[in-house]
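How a chain folds remains the central question behind the approach discussed here. For one protein, we set the task of working out the structure tokens from the amino acid sequence alone. The sequence in question and its structure tokens are set out directly beneath this paragraph.

_____
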Amino acid sequence: MSATLVVAGRSARWMAEAAARDGCEVIALDVFGDADTRRAARRWVDVGDAALRIDAARLLPALAEAAQDRGVIGWMAGSDFECEPALLASAAAQLPLLGTAPDAVARVRDPARFFAALDALGLPHPEVADAPPADPRGWLLKDALGTGGWHIRRADDPHPADAARRPYWQRESAGQPMSALFIAAADGVQLVGFNALIVRPLGVHPHVYRGAIGPLQLPVKVEAPLRDAIARLAARFALRGLASLDFLLDGEHWTLLEINPRASASMALYAERPLVRAHLAACRGDAPVAVEGAGGPGTTRGHEIVFARQAFRLSPAQATMLAEAGDCHDLPAAGTAFAAGDPVCSIGALGNNADAVRAALASRRQALRDTLTPKPV
């Protein structure tokens, strides 16, 4: 019987699919229960609350129940756990966590310690402050316990905002948002690939994550020092398994933003690589599983979240249309209600380069939104 891996996060689809491809039986714990997540898992458990956040009262018993299954080897954390270090520690006490330890997650997500480490290592980052700047123009207000860009506001934004649990201020900098997906082990780091992040405003939110495109080839003058930075940071913060580094790239100038010490949605860009097997090997201290690969024509992938343009309820015909589209993922069930700005599903595209993939995603996004929520006449 194959080993059973529990994957948990606000959305667990990309982890469930990757684990299934690598030969694991999967128990998926997430908030949405999309059709493709359920298809990849032998069992799905709803661990969400009414606000579509991870609910500790559901998560912890689900992990405790999974711990009674003799085939379960542990669990893998995905989205939102980097924002909940106390919950991550409680969850790890229920079932062995296969990934970066909770105390290490807390350290790397603490702005004071993270940016102090960058300074000590001589690594570039935008100017940061732990108090509001005297002149807020050109500054962003961030929450160290936020994710997906939803927590980011302009420091001079007059709109009321939810109170940040761990606020800090960062000077807004130029550059294309990027990420590096990697696997950290005790004896070193393997780079999976570099990706361009799709980040655009949504309502009062100036920098919302919408997707990613990769793998991308970076100039040698950029790639070599970034690889070195990743290795040094992984060692300093005792990272284990899959993680990602977010940075800005402006020509050959780069600045570091943050580390997400857990599995990332950019895993979906590398479906042909054994990322979960490599993750488990790194966490266990086994011999490394190779994950680097050379790209070629037609190997650049992209995915993008499609947000509702207006409130609507997904009809059975629309749900069937999404399921049969072939390039749609995170498939919602018929009858699901969406408010304007809610994520509906994600779309994918494959091309010869990033520009081709970006154009294909834009076309598919527009066509899908026009089908689901036509523009008012």
DSSP finds ten helices and 18 strands in the chain. The domain at 4-98 is CATH 3.40.50.20 (Rossmann fold). The chain has three domains: 4-98, 106-284, 300-372. The longest strand covers residues 188-202.
